Automatic annotation (TrEMBL):
It comes from the Bacteria. This is Aminopeptidase N. The gene is pepN. Pfam families: DUF3458, DUF3458_C, Peptidase_M1, Peptidase_M1_N. Residues 221-435 form the Peptidase M1 membrane alanine aminopeptidase domain.
Amino acid sequence: MTDQPRAVHLADYQPYTHRVEHVALTFRLAPRATRVLAALRLSPNPGRPGRHDLRLDGEQLRLIAVRIEGREVAARVDATGMTIPAEMLPEGGFTLETEVEIAPEGNTALEGLYMSRGMYCTQCEAEGFRKITYYPDRPDVMAPFRVRIEADLPVLLSNGNPLGQGPGWAEWEDPWPKPAYLFALVAGDLVAHSADFTTASGRAVALNIWVRAGDQDRCAYAMDSLIRSMRWDEEVYGREYDLDVFNIVAVDDFNMGAMENKGLNIFNSKYVLASPETATDDDFARIEAIIAHEYFHNWTGNRITCRDWFQLCLKEGLTVFRDQQFSGDMRSHAVKRIEDVLMLRARQFREDGGPLAHPVRPDSYVEINNFYTATIYEKGAEVIGMLKRLVGEEGYARALDLYFTRHDGEAATIEDWLRVFEDATGRDLAQFKRWYTEAGTPRVKVWEEWDGESYTLTFEQENPATPGQPEKGAKVIPIAVGLLNPNGDEVLPTTVLELTQDRQSFRFPAAARPVPSILRGFSAPVVLERDVSPEERAFLLAHDTDPFNKWEAGRALAKDLLARMVTEGAAPGPDWLDAIARVTFDEGLDPAFRALALRLPGEDDMASTLHAGGITPDPARIWAERRRMGEALARRLGPQLPGLIEALAEPGPFTPDARAAGRRALRIAALALLARVDGGRAARAAHAAADNMTEEVGALIALLEVGAGQEELVAFEARWGRDRNVMDKWFALQIAHAHPDQAVAVTEALTRHPDFDWKNPNRFRSVIGALSANHAGFHHGSGAGYRLVADWLLRLDPLNPQTAARMSTAFETWPRYDADRQGMVQAELARMAAAPGLSRDLGEMVARMRG
Ligand code: PHE
Ligand code: ZN
């Protein structure tokens, strides 16, 4: 056994011993032997009085030389860095030079400097810079960088502004002090899609999206999104761009979505490249959101960064919140909110309710890469949404202005963040802070009482135990409520109640018994527990003025029904069928909203809900009953579907805007339903007629769901076989929509496909990730799903621990299921834990999941 990797604790934070005043780097690029020369201008940090050794992080570096003020010194080198004893350091400031050799070609972990199909690129967040050179690789060390790149390649990029270039070299200078995790370098044979932008104060900025030759015609939407993001951040947050160039590069091999390196964002090509023929409406929406997200980081993340990685939500929660606001402004706030909540529940509530639960600001970790989670990102954004609701629009604007002026150029903490809200609004946020320090999704029970004159709502909150946190205090929960009278008129417009105690009542005058609409807009990330009759849900679905709760009423109706189908053998009745039919054909409603209302509850969501209600979920049964539910709906709506499909056909060329996308979403939802009653005839015709990827994939999924679509799959591969991003869809959708008894076999067959390039993270996710997302297939009673996923994680781990660890969350829900399944998952976790040489990344995840 190797040593147990050690945890890092928030409580142990100490400022760095030195200051880095300037960094100059020279790269002589070569696939197997890249030389990196670093000159660091260092001085003692007055924040750490006394004389200290100099400790620099460094991993997998071949050290050639170390010099201080030009003289060779003997540094102590170990597996994680180098130490130069205090006695060997001059007093005051000095220059440290190092020269190392690294091998980007062999770097399969895609962290540090690596190669992707002939192109050099870097990924330094969170701790990748230490694989490039010796450096204090921590976010609170901020310095200006100057970079020289030498390579016989046409495009050589780094952060900041270009200083000069010639044949085989280029120099860059980034004047803004930054932490090393924001460093980036790209070198390759690339072409640019370019545009210009002038900031509000008149700075001209050259915008470039760098891609491989042939992909230039797929950059227009990303560029348009970038320009809209830049304008929006000026208008809404008063934030301008601060360099002369803004570069984006698309790479095919990338562990995550994208990275906000200063002035040089690097993107997974999947989140840049789009054309109507190759990208779906969901792809377009994600590109818009991610382009905005990375751009917004320039202020929330780069200009103001994190003091340490425990503060990750400081930049991520805020930047997600900002990109959600942006997408809402660009599209529809109602639809965006519903989609965000669906995602939050599917990923974050799932995480919060299992063995991997952790606070939005954790206080310890083994491998920081394992904490880029839905909790840090999505719950982190929800917490900011609550803050905004509590202090109001104006208070929020004042707090943010203060944040930017007070902390610009700094590495800040959650305490700093909360203090700007306290100082700007006078509000005490001591209790609110629990949202950052305590894990778990609060459950809120509601009772109502009407005595003829007044109406009382009583709330009780329960904060469930999570790993390492058996007990916790009451949270501040903003609960937005409205009251309707029995005719459907609103008698109390949206009002925010502040629940701060374990149990609390709120009274309203009411001459008639009102119907409450509670947690409007999903005003807090909690589970609301209230016994509501199907009639009342149908009433809210028809009348609620709050679009989120209107949708939520339909969803709750569907979930109640599906739960009764699974547990009592109930059958879909008119209360649900008629209510959904009314929404589906209500032309006064946004088609995108109607499409969302038609979406059936997910199987994983259902399993979680049943488990919370004390019932052990049976994945096969949930799958079968959900299918029955879809068939009943298809029969009920069937006769009217062809008319709807016809009416929603978009004349003219494809446009990716929200209006057109919403119409396509409803049309595809209708096609999928119709396939259940017409054997796929309409879907097959729609597939044949499709001139865009949204409809091509939509119709294909409709066919796969009814056991058809094999010919279409063959044609798809013949047409798109050479396109990596499009083929990812082809791999994923056959698995995601496979019958549960066949999902493992389909996956196995695809792992033998010549294009199953499993070292490419996108392709790995499209295959192994798609199986984990096929609920009944992955949780198949045979255990074959568990085994196959574990096999592949073990295979990937030695090459790319970060992606293997992220994907291991497939197993996090095991405590919900029956003893057999629990035993099978535990056996797979034990098998992984025992694997020789298991990475720290996967090792930590497996250990936490085993409990
Ligand atoms: N910071 C990136 C983002 O959220 C995510 C990321 C983390 C990318 C780690 C790569 C590595 O925008
Ligand atoms: Zn981010």
